[in-house]
Write a structure and sequence with these properties.
The protein is of the alpha/beta class. It has helices at about 25-40, 105-115, 135-145, 160-170, 200-210, 230-240, 270-275, 285-290, 300-310, 330-340, 350-360, 365-374; strands at about 5-10, 45, 50-55, 75, 80-85, 90-95, 120-125, 150, 150-155, 180-185, 215-220, 220-225, 225, 245-250, 280-285, 315-320. The chain has two domains: about 5-15 and about 105-374, Metal-dependent hydrolases (TIM Barrel); about 25-95, no CATH class.
C-alpha cells in the first residue's frame, strides 16, 4: 500500500525463563503462572498423549491473590509451552507457537516479520508474562528508528504508589514510552483490592492524564473484576473523573459474547456509550481469538467487523496482530491480509484509517514520526 501500515499490537521479549526486567526470575514466574491460569484460548493438555484437561490446577479459584497460587512445579517448557505437574502427571498449555524453542521474540525477528508482511511500524505492548520491558523497547527503538514504539508497564496492583509513579515518569521520560499498558489481571498481586477505579488510584490516573498519552487496556470477560460489562463500568468511572485520557481496548470488543446465532451483534449499553460518547477506541484483532475456531480468512469475523464499523465509524478502530502469539493459528502476514484482502465492505479511506491514521491520531509519538517523514 502507498502508506505505512501500523501494527498496534506486537511483542518482543527475551527468553521466558529469565527475569525479563523483574527483580528476579521467581517474580516473573509468578506472573506467568497467574497468566496461564487466566488464559482460556488454548486448552490444557496432558504431556503423554496430548489429551485435553478440563481442571484448572494452577490457582485456587476462590483466592485471586498470590496466596492462591498452587505448588505444581509450574515451569517454562520449550517450543512455546508452559508446563506443570499434578499428581505425578505432566501437563502443558501451548501458549506460543511451536517454533519458539526458548519462548523468545527478538527485535530482529519482529522486523523480519514486518518487512515480509509490509508493516512499517509496530507498537510494542508490555504484558507481565513477557516481562517489564521498557528498557528493551527503548533499545529496539534506537536500533530501528521509526519501526518500533513502546508502551510503559506498571505493576497494576501498586500503580498509585510512589515507587511505581517514579518508575513510570522514567519510562515515559528517559525511555520515551509512547503510552501506558494496563491489564486488570495484574491486580492479583493485591487480591484486587482496591479496584483500579477507586479514588486510591487517582495519583496514577492524574499522571496519565497529565502526560497526554493513551492507555492500552487488557480486560477480561470473567475475572475478579466481574464480567466484561463490569470492566467497562470501571472504565466509565475513570473517564468521568479523568476525561482527558484516551483509551484503547486491547483485543477489541469481545463480540462473540454479544452475537446471536446469526452473528447479529447486540452490545450492552455501557459499550455502546463508551464507543460513541467516550474517548475510547478498540483494536480490530480477530485471528488470535478466532483462529482456533474457524479457518482463514475468518468469514464470521468480517460479519462482526462490518457491524462495528457501521455502528461506530472506522475512526474508532485500529488494526493489530498480537504477534508472535498469532503464529499458533496463522502467519503474521495472514493476520493482516485476512483484513486487507477480504474487507471489501470497507472503503479505502476506512481501511487506511484502521491500518494507520487512527494510530497516528492516538499516539503523539507516531504523529511526530509522520512529520519527520513528511
Amino acid at each position: 500500500m502507498e502508506y505505512g501500515i501500523i501494527d498496534c499490537h506486537a511483542h518482543i521479549f527475551p527468553p521466558a525463563a529469565t527475569a525479563a526486567g523483574f527483580p528476579d526470575v521467581a517474580t516473573h514466574l509468578l506472573h506467568q503462572q497467574r497468566s496461564m491460569h487466566m488464559h482460556g484460548n488454548q486448552p490444557y493438555r496432558r504431556c503423554h498423549d496430548h489429551s485435553i484437561v478440563t481442571e484448572r490446577p494452577l490457582w485456587d479459584a476462590k483466592d485471586p491473590s498470590p496466596t492462591g497460587r498452587r505448588e505444581v512445579n509450574f515451569r517454562i517448557g520449550t517450543h512455546g509451552r508452559y508446563e506443570w505437574t499434578v499428581d505425578d502427571e505432566d501437563q502443558y498449555v501451548q501458549f506460543l507457537a511451536p517454533w519458539m524453542a526458548n519462548l523468545e521474540m527478538t527485535a530482529e525477528t519482529m522486523i523480519a516479520y514486518m518487512d515480509y508482511a509490509g508493516v512499517a511500524t509496530a507498537i510494542l505492548q508490555n504484558d507481565h508474562i513477557y516481562g517489564n520491558l521498557a528498557e528493551e523497547f527503548a533499545a529496539a527503538a534506537r536500533a530501528y528508528p521509526d519501526r518500533f514504539i513502546g508502551l510503559a508497564q506498571v505493576e497494576e496492583a501498586f500503580a498509585y504508589q510512589d515507587h511505581e509513579l517514579q518508575r513510570l515518569h522514567d519510562e515515559i521520560g528517559r525511555l520515551g514510552m509512547a503510552g501506558f499498558y494496563f491489564t486488570t489481571t495484574g491486580m492479583f498481586r493485591s487480591g484486587y483490592k482496591p479496584m483500579h477505579s477507586d479514588p486510591a488510584y487517582d495519583p496514577y490516573w492524574k499522571l496519565v492524564e497529565a502526560s497526554g498519552l493513551p492507555v492500552f487496556w487488557v480486560q477480561s470477560g470473567n475475572s475478579p473484576v466481574g464480567t466484561y460489562e463490569d470492566e467497562m463500568r470501571h472504565l466509565a468511572r475513570i473517564i468521568e473523573r479523568f476525561p482527558g485520557i484516551r483509551h484503547l481496548l486491547v483485543h477489541g470488543v469481545p463480540t462473540t459474547l454479544y452475537a446471536d446465532e446469526n452473528d447479529k451483534l447486540k452490545l450492552p449499553p455501557i459499550i455502546e456509550t463508551l464507543l460513541t460518547e467516550g474517548p475510547v477506541f478498540a483494536e480490530i484483532l480477530y485471528p488470535i481469538a478466532w483462529g482456533g475456531k474457524q479457518e482463514y480468512p475468518y468469514p464470521r469475523a468480517h460479519l462482526h467487523i462490518r457491524q462495528l464499523v457501521e455502528r461506530f465509524g472506522a475512526s474508532r478502530f485500529l488494526w493489530g496482530s498480537d504477534a508472535p502469539n498469532v503464529d499458533r493459528y496463522c502467519t503474521y502476514a495472514q493476520s493482516l491480509t485476512y483484513f486487507t484482502r477480504y474487507s471489501d465492505y470497507l472503503s479505502e479511506a476506512e481501511k487506511r484509517a484502521i491500518l494507520r491514521d487512527n494510530a497516528v491520531a492516538l499516539l503523539p509519538a507516531l504523529a511526530r514520526m509522520d512529520k519527520r517523514e513528511g
